Task: inverse folding
């Protein structure tokens, strides 16, 4: 039985957002497209977020991915940068949710480990391994595009081997867990806006 799905990978950013799409056919992976969204022409953070949302919707509507794999923001010394990156990730996720696409989040370390076997690998090492895995010859102008492909490939590997180790929200003991926002609201009508 043949299984086939399209995975959209996103490397969120407030100056450059990388995106990439792969086709998983059984255990074979092929790159469909990769690219970047440049946001440096916007000096307003809200306009950047609006453009990210619009572009992710455009990509989804054109390629109809089955799942979204996105890189989680990593903790750094600059809290403002992390906040901006988290917002960029959030609007990309909102666009996918708006189109009903399941989201899987992976840490940068998990993605690098999955692709190269080394969680501290450089962007260049990830790029070189991806050339072998998804067989592409083009050299992107920005490695943000290959980082997005790496997120998609990481998701494929994790899902393929039944070891989906995504970032999960921890529920305090004794609390009920929910598998969707709709089921949460159904059981908590007082939380509706």
Result:
């Amino acid at each position: 039985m043949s299984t086939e799905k399209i995975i959209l990978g996103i490397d969120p950013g407030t100056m450059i957002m990388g995106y990439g799409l792969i086709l998983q056919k059984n255990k074979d992976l092929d790159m469909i497209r990769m690219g970047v969204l440049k946001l440096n022409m916007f000096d307003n953070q809200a306009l950047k977020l609006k453009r990210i949302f619009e572009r992710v919707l455009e990509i989804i509507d054109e390629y109809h991915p089955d799942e979204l794999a996105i890189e989680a923001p990593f903790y750094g010394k600059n809290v403002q940068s992390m906040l901006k990156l988290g917002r960029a990730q959030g609007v990309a996720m909102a666009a996918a949710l708006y189109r009903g696409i399941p989201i899987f989040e992976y840490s940068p370390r998990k993605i690098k480990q999955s692709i190269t076997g080394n969680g501290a690998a450089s962007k260049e090492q990830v790029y070189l391994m991806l050339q072998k895995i998804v067989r592409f010859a083009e050299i992107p102008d920005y490695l943000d595009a290959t980082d997005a492909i790496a997120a998609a490939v990481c998701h494929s590997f994790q899902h393929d081997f039944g070891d989906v180790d995504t970032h999960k929200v921890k529920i305090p003991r004794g609390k009920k867990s929910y598998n969707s926002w709709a089921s949460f609201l159904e059981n908590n009508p007082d939380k509706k806006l």
Q: What stands out?
A: The chain has one domain: 4-167.
